[in-house]
Amino acid sequence: MVTWEVDNRRYLAIRQPALSDANPHESGCGSRELNKPLDLESSKVIDLETFVPRAEVDPIYFNTPYYVYPDGRIADETFGVIGAAMREADKVGIGRVTLSPRERLVMIEPRDSGLVLITLRPSEEVRAASFATADTAIDPDMVAVASMIIKRRSGISTRPPFGTVIKKRCAS
After folding, report:
1. What is the pLDDT of residue 156?
2. Three-state secondary-structure class, residue 18
3. What is the pLDDT of residue 150?
4. Contact predicate 115/68, CB 8 Å
5. Contact of 93 with 81, CB cutoff 8 Å
6. What is the mean pLDDT of residues 75-92?
7. Which residue of 19, 64, 135, 140 has the fewest C-beta atoms within 10 A of its own C-beta?
8. How many angstroms separate the CA atoms of 99 and 96, rounded?
9. What is the pLDDT of residue 32?
10. Alpha helices in 23-139 (DSSP H)
11. Contacts of 45 by beta carbon, 8 Å cutoff, 6+ apart
């Protein structure tokens, strides 16, 4: 295994066979082998790089949520301390973790007495909104009607999560 320091306290480790596969002079492989992805193993380490106000992270970047559980007594205390500190500061953690074969940008936020990890889409995968502007003025009477409908139907949802409703409909 070869390790390089990327920046302060961050290292890149690559297995020796992966290096020889990528170097056509060492392995005798053609240029086709240069495009072979490195197999990264999943990691239990979440590298939190910064803490930001939750409102600064646009939900358009949210990908997949995961509940994060501590692995043992020492981790239990660490999770509690980090979660309480983030809750008190009203911040979320932004960092990286290796899941499946690739490193992913993630957000960690306190949820109840635990933590939730949300994978974030890279900015290259999110296109900018290009909403058309209305050429005509919006009718205030129509807005009043729509507001009345919203007010009448507002309340606390008593329905189960969407997945449960869809499963029940498919089963019948």
Report:
1. 75
2. helix
3. 93
4. yes
5. no
6. 90
7. 135
8. 9
9. 46
10. 24-27, 73-89
11. 97
Burial 154-164 (b: 16+ CB within 10 A, else e): eeeeeeeeeee
Q: How far is CA 47 from CA 11, 20, 106, 107, 108, in A?
A: 11, 28, 9, 10, 10
Which segments of the chain belong to CATH 2.40.290.10?
Answer: 40-127
pLDDT, average across residues 152-167: 66
> What pLDDT is stored for residue 28 in this prediction?
44
Bridge partners, residue 12, by sequence = 4
Backbone angles phi, psi at 7, to 5 degrees: -155, -170
- To the question of domain 40-127 being in CATH 2.40.290.10, the answer is yes
In a 13 Å sphere around the CA of 39, the CA atoms on its Cβ side amount to 5
pTM of the model: 0.59
The HSE-up count of residue 147 (CA atoms within 13 Å, CB side) is: 6
Structure tokens belonging to residue 49 = 């790089």
